[in-house]
């Protein structure tokens, strides 16, 4: 907040205009050149505080609306071409890749364009989805959860996938075999706790999750929770100090071999 | 007459010209000084905040449109929704804040209730919590992290309660909750650490259930509500000044309608009080709402009449214990509620758990203080825990605390809405232990009632005060 220009007092102001000039008291520090231009721009913005605040709120709302639009349900495609095509269209539109059963990976090119051939495959289930880096959020998962035979799901580095989204993955429990959550900034160990519904999971990647408080301990707990699954991620020995281990060895081994 | 009409205009221009005609400071500078002087004059005139004799800034203001008694999560939620749903009027609210049970809560949220309105309230509240950073966003403040654990609730039922549980689950599914029923074998497969002896059926909430940090929600609400212009003050309500109106109903009965005009707020550690004139009073005082209602004269009358119906909310002390058990259930542990009333949940990653039990009517502890009874854990809680989860036989109690339930002795469900006789007092209390999980939705319902006169989104008419007089119980079976 800008400091008040003059203290509030009921004294008659001094009217010696000669030395003060047009800016009055704000000229007291006598800024020159660039500093003066910078100051007057800041002053301009500070005078219009509520307008700037309204502008910022508008920009935030616009951003939220854009996210909402990206994750909207494609009900027309779903009704016309089936849930698999709708899910595939959703992922391709966000910039990810889709693999139908028995076909190759379909990916959008650098410009975001992709061929619409998959719309003919109405009964072929989607086998794998690569949504790395895509802006999928809680609402967008609606389209993904309709893919009942999904086996591989890659959600690496998705900025909006959080614990709430993980709690929604349980309908895929019967088919999902590989899940990758590497690098998602919003996922914490609380969301990983609800992955125990996915009993068919064989490969889980939880590396590089910045919001997880204790990666080594979390790795152990997740391994205990999903005994049939290979959990790739944090090295559980990472947090341990090397010095203590050596000391322990010295005490236990009686004679150095 | 013409002269008197024109005099004020003439006088004002003279004043303006008088100030503006001074040679010296330029126009922008002059305008700043003039507005400062005008503000100063306005504060001196009656109605302003300037007091030449002594400093009164610690007292609540003298006028307010709405006074909310109670600064816990329900009171703050009502303030938030009032400010959000009002047509741009900038009405001032004042909160009288004395004590809140919110931060002592275990923090769970579930949809496994038997009354459909409770399920709808929880569903909206979970949606509020999921989008909390959109609802409670304050410019330039960091986003809130309520640390939600979406691990779900697991309610176990014995043979006796199995039929009731099935019908409850049907109602829950109809309202949109994602709950699945499990047999004892399925339970053993999913959670091998459970001893399913005595369990006939279990209902497991898959989504939208779990626990979170209530302190964070409270702080977020408080920050947002302050940024919306609500005034907070510390104090205690000691008196209501009201006026009565004798009216006749259509059938000729005599009815006395009361209207509260002033709330006397006493400052802590002092005898000083401030009379706050208000239009509407909202009783969100939690465990102490019964006392506040008594101050307003609710319940003073022959028993059996509407005047004699008291607000049946009283404080009940509940204990929460924290223990450590290294071989205990793992990361997937949901919030487990045993048929005997004992509950527990996982806390953090270090094999710590917290839980407790609601005592029976005969064993109710004295709510005078918040001292914890450790024998209660030894005698009542631990045996049931060890029986249900054999690993808990080797647990080690770490710490404990106690908090108050605003227990509704009538039917353990909330009281929401206006009082039929004291026409400007609204209730939002009596949730008997599940106030935290319904707070956002209840706040919205009360705000709709105050601003529009009826419930708009969720119809809470079964929860009005009049049910105490009419004797219509809305019994909630799944109370912990």
From TrEMBL, chain A:
InterPro entries: LRR_dom_sf. Belongs to the ATP synthase subunit s family. It comes from the Eukaryota. It comes from Canis lupus familiaris (Dog). Interacts with incompletely assembled mitochondrial NADH:ubiquinone oxidoreductase complex (complex I). SUPFAM superfamilies: RNI-like. Required for the assembly of the mitochondrial NADH:ubiquinone oxidoreductase complex (complex I). Involved in the assembly of the distal region of complex I. GO terms for biological process: mitochondrial respiratory chain complex I assembly; SCF-dependent proteasomal ubiquitin-dependent protein catabolic process. The gene is DMAC2. GO terms for cellular component: mitochondrion; SCF ubiquitin ligase complex. This is Distal membrane-arm assembly complex protein 2.
Automatic annotation (TrEMBL), chain B:
It is found in: Mitochondrion inner membrane. GO terms for cellular component: mitochondrial inner membrane. Coiled coil: none annotated. It is a single-pass membrane protein. It comes from the Eukaryota. Its cofactor is FAD. Residues 65-449 form the FAD dependent oxidoreductase domain. InterPro entries: FAD-dep_OxRdtase (IPR006076), FAD/NAD-bd_sf (IPR036188). The keyword Isomerase does not apply. One of its GO terms (molecular function) is oxidoreductase activity. Pfam families: DAO (PF01266). Keywords: Electron transport, FAD, Flavoprotein, Membrane, Mitochondrion, Mitochondrion inner membrane, Oxidoreductase, Respiratory chain, Transmembrane, Transmembrane helix, Transport. PANTHER family: FAD-DEPENDENT OXIDOREDUCTASE DOMAIN-CONTAINING PROTEIN 1, SARCOSINE DEHYDROGENASE-RELATED. Associates with components of the mitochondrial respiratory chain complex I. Required for the assembly of the mitochondrial membrane respiratory chain NADH dehydrogenase (Complex I). Involved in mid-late stages of complex I assembly. This is FAD-dependent oxidoreductase domain-containing protein 1.
């Amino acid at each position: 907040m800008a400091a008040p220009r003059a203290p509030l007092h009921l004294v008659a102001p001094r009217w010696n205009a000669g030395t003060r000039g047009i800016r009055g008291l704000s000229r007291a520090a006598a800024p020159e050149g660039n500093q003066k231009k910078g100051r007057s721009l800041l002053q301009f913005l500070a005078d219009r505080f509520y307008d700037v605040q309204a502008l910022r709120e508008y920009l935030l709302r616009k951003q939220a609306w854009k996210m909402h639009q990206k994750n909207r349900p494609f009900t027309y495609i779903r009704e016309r071409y089936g849930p698999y095509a709708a899910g595939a269209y959703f992922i391709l539109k966000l910039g990810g890749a889709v693999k139908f059963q028995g076909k190759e990976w379909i990916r959008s090119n650098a410009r975001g364009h992709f061929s619409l051939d998959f719309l003919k495959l109405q009964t072929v289930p989607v086998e794998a989805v690569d949504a790395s880096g895509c802006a999928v959020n809680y609402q967008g998962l609606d389209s993904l959860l309709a893919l009942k035979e999904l086996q591989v799901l890659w959600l690496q580095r998705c900025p909006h996938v959080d614990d709430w989204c993980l709690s929604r993955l349980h309908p895929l429990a019967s088919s999902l075999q590989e899940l990758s959550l590497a690098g998602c900034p919003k996922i914490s160990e609380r969301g990983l706790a609800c992955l125990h519904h996915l009993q068919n999971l064989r490969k889980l990647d939880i590396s590089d999750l910045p919001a997880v408080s204790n990666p080594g301990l979390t790795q152990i707990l997740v391994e205990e929770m999903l005994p049939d699954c290979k959990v790739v991620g944090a090295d559980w020995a990472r947090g341990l100090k090397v010095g203590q281990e050596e000391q322990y060895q010295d005490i236990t081994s009686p004679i150095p071999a | 007459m013409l002269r008197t009409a024109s005099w004020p205009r003439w006088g004002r221009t003279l004043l303006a010209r008088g100030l503006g005609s001074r040679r010296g400071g330029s126009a922008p500078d002059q305008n700043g000084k003039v507005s400062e002087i005008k503000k100063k004059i306005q504060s001196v005139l009656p109605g302003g905040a300037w007091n030449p004799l002594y400093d009164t800034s610690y007292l609540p203001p003298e006028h307010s449109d709405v006074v909310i008694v109670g600064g816990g999560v329900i009171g703050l939620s009502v303030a938030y929704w009032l400010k959000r749903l009002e047509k741009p009027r900038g009405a001032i609210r004042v909160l009288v804040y004395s004590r809140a049970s919110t931060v002592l809560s275990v923090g769970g949220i579930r949809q496994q209730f038997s009354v459909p309105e409770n399920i709808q309230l929880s569903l909206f509240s979970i949606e509020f919590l999921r989008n909390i950073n959109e609802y409670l966003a304050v410019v330039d403040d960091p986003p809130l992290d309520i640390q939600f654990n979406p691990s779900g609730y697991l309610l176990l039922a014995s043979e006796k309660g199995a039929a009731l549980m099935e019908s409850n689950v049907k109602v829950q599914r109809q309202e949109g909750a994602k709950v699945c029923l499990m047999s004892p074998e399925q339970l053993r497969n999913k959670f091998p650490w459970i001893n399913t002896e005595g369990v006939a059926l279990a209902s497991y909430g898959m989504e939208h259930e779990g626990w979170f940090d209530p302190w964070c929600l409270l702080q977020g609400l408080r920050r947002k509500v302050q940024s919306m212009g609500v005034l907070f003050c510390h104090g205690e309500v000691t008196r209501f000044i009201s006026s009565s109106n004798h009216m006749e109903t259509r059938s000729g009965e005599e009815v006395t309608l009361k209207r509260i005009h002033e709330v006397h707020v006493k400052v802590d550690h002092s005898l000083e009080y401030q009379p706050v004139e208000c239009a509407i009073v909202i009783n969100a005082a939690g465990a102490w709402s019964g006392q506040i209602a008594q101050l307003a004269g609710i319940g003073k009358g022959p028993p059996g009449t509407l005047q004699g119906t008291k607000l049946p909310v009283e404080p009940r002390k509940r204990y929460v214990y924290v223990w450590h058990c290294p071989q205990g259930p793992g990361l997937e542990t949901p919030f487990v509620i045993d048929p005997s009333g004992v509950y527990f949940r996982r806390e953090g990653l270090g094999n710590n758990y917290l839980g407790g039990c609601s005592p029976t009517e005969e064993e109710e502890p004295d709510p005078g203080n918040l001292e914890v009874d450790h024998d209660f854990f030894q005698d009542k809680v631990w045996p049931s825990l060890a029986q249900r989860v054999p690993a808990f036989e080797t647990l080690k109690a770490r710490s404990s605390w106690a908090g108050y339930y605003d227990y509704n002795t009538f039917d353990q469900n909330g009281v929401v809405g206006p009082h039929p006789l004291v026409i400007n007092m609204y209730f939002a209390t009596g949730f008997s232990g599940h106030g935290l999980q319904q707070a956002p939705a209840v706040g919205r319902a009360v705000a709709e009632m105050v601003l529009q006169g009826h419930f708009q989104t969720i119809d809470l008419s079964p929860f009005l005060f009049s049910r105490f007089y009419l004797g219509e119980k809305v019994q909630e079976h799944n109370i912990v």
